[in-house]
Amino acid sequence: MTSFWVYFAAKPLWWIIVTIATFLFTSWLNRRVGGTPLLHPVLVALSLIILLLQITDTDYDTYFQGAQFIHFLLGPATVALAVPLYDHFERIKKMLLPLLVACTCGALTAALSVIATAWALGASDNTLLSLAPKSVTSPIAIGIAEKIGGYPSLAAGLVLITGAIGCLTAPPLFRWLKIEDDAVKGFTLGLSSHGFGTAYAFEFSTLAGAFAGLAMGLTGLLTAFLVPVLVRLLGL
């Protein structure tokens, strides 16, 4: 059995199969429990794969030899968000100024609130710098963390946690605030919970998904410009 495992673990195809099979299983599990964000397929699949790598003593580079082919699809999948955006372009064009203002306020609030909270709790400067970009999608957050002196790996993990928390808390907040407009729901999810929130928004409607994709892109762009400036102003 040891020889069998060593042989297959070294093959990129094995880790593609593991990744896809794990995600399919966690998607099925999520549907069975009513689609709760607490058991988000991405978060659960990530945890299971990490556990498998730990148990089998497999390093990340070996795993990524296979997973890189799925990772490549992230780019086309992101570009595909332009399709629902195009379908609702007229409504987006009419609301462009309010959306820009809301996104700017949201990006600033996300960065300043987490920095203030972590600073009050005694976090180190490097941790503060890693927390600042936690509300944008992983590639942008990693790039920002590297530029300002944070820990890219910590920033990537915080992005996932932020996305999961956002998806978990959004539905009760929408009910509490009596928000019925799918455009508002989607934009809120995309702004605060990046890719996780965008995927979750499509469960409401394509309109929510379109506005979530727009918010995710705008927040990433604005955060990339605003966070370095904030860091300098705060003297971190």
From TrEMBL:
Q: Which domain of life is it from?
A: Bacteria
Give the primary localization class: membrane
Q: Which Pfam families match?
A: LrgB
Q: Which InterPro entries match?
A: CidB/LrgB
State the membrane topology. Multi-pass membrane protein
Q: Which UniProt keywords apply?
A: Membrane, Transmembrane, Transmembrane helix
Is-annotated flag, keyword Cell membrane?
A: no
The membrane spanning regions, by residue number, are 12-29, 38-56, 68-86, 98-121, 154-174, 186-202, 208-231
**Compartment(s):** Membrane
User: What PANTHER family does the record tag this protein with?
Assistant: PLASTIDAL GLYCOLATE_GLYCERATE TRANSLOCATOR 1, CHLOROPLASTIC, PUTATIVE SEROTONIN TRANSPORTER
Q: What is this protein called?
A: TIGR00659 family protein
